[in-house]
């Protein structure tokens, strides 16, 4: 298995000191920076767009992982690539032409991911998995930080891992399968929930409130998460 990566979500950071908050995560040992983009339509909340993503990009050398919780994401892919996104995930639920959007992301120069709401089955992305570098299993209903982890998510991670392994074997000679499909879990990850999803096959953990809301700071929070998954990160 890949080394498990930690991706702090800036959604729970202090936006008034955003560059510092990003650097704090990098100095504390984060692997990626997760950027949550919300449009007030697909999800109730409104957050940030390409300009703030570019500010994150300028503050760090880490990969910038953009999670688009927006309708019609195809309209904004190029803007986020231009802003410096390395990874871009779109939601299955808003993409009737999901294959086309994933291809668009790759052709624009980023790595494509597909995110699944808690109610969306893993099997719904079976046909596009050969085009995907990252599967995002939402372990809360997207829209807000600080929500409670949905317990059935670990079992869903296991099904996603099994399906990704199957598809990787089938399309093993394809250029994009030089790296295995990564499984990311997003929502309610903390030191009590992290180990279960890693055991189930997750290799990227997003954490917002558990990292930026930790009383002892970002570095301690990252250390605790690493300990919780048995040093596999
Ligand atoms: C939820 C976002 C998450 C969120 C996670 O809609 O996609 O990335 O920031 O926050 P926590 O870790 O607090 O659940
Ligand atoms: Zn997210």
Question: What would you say about this model in short?
Answer:
This protein has 233 residues and is of the alpha/beta class. The chain contains 8 helices and 8 strands.
SSE inventory with pairings:
Elements (H helix, E strand, L loop, with lengths): L4 E4 L9 H10 L5 E6 L11 H10 L4 E6 L7 H6 L4 E5 L6 H11 L2 E6 L17 E5 L14 H18 L11 E5 L7 H6 L4 E4 L1 H4 L5 H11 L5
Parallel strand pairs: 1-8, 2-3, 3-4, 4-5, 5-6, 6-7, 7-8
Helix pairs in contact: 1-2
Bound molecules: D-xylitol-5-phosphate (DX5) and zinc ion.
The site of zinc ion has 6 residues, from β2.
Could you walk me through the main structural features you see in this protein, from its secondary elements to its overall organization?
33% of the residues lie in helices and 18% in strands. It is of the alpha/beta class and 233 residues long. It has an eight-stranded parallel beta sheet with strand order 1-8-7-6-5-4-3-2. Helix 2 (50-59) links the parallel strand 2 and strand 3. Helix 1 packs across helix 2 (50-59). The longest helix is centred in the C-terminal third of the chain and has 18 residues, at 153-170.
Q: What is the approximate shape?
A: globular
Say which molecules are bound, naming each kind only once.
Answer: D-xylitol-5-phosphate, zinc ion
Based on secondary structure, the structural category is alpha/beta
Strand content: 15-25%
């Amino acid at each position: 298995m890949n080394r498990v990566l930690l991706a702090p979500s800036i959604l729970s950071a202090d936006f008034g000191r955003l560059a510092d908050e990003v650097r704090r995560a990098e100095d504390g040992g984060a692997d990626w920076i997760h950027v949550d983009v919300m449009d007030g339509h697909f999800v109730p909340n409104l957050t940030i767009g390409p300009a703030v993503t570019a500010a994150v990009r300028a503050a760090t050398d880490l990969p910038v992982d953009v999670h688009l919780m927006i309708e019609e994401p195809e309209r904004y892919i190029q803007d986020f690539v231009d802003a410096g996104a390395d990874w871009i995930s779109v939601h299955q639920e808003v993409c009737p032409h999901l294959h086309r959007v994933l291809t668009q992301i790759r052709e624009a120069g980023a790595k494509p991911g597909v995110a699944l709401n808690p109610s969306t089955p893993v099997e719904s992305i079976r046909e596009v998995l050969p085009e995907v570098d990252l599967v995002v299993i939402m372990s809360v209903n997207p829209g807000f930080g600080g929500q409670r982890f949905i317990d059935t998510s670990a079992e869903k991670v296991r099904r996603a891992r099994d399906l990704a392994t199957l598809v990787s074997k089938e399309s093993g000679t394809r250029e994009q399968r030089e790296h295995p499909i990564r499984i990311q879990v997003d929502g309610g990850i903390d030191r009590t929930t992290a180990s279960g999803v890693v055991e189930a096959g997750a290799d990227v953990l997003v954490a917002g409130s558990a990292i930026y809301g930790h009383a002892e700071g970002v570095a301690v929070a990252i250390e605790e998460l690493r300990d919780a998954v048995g040093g596999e990160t």
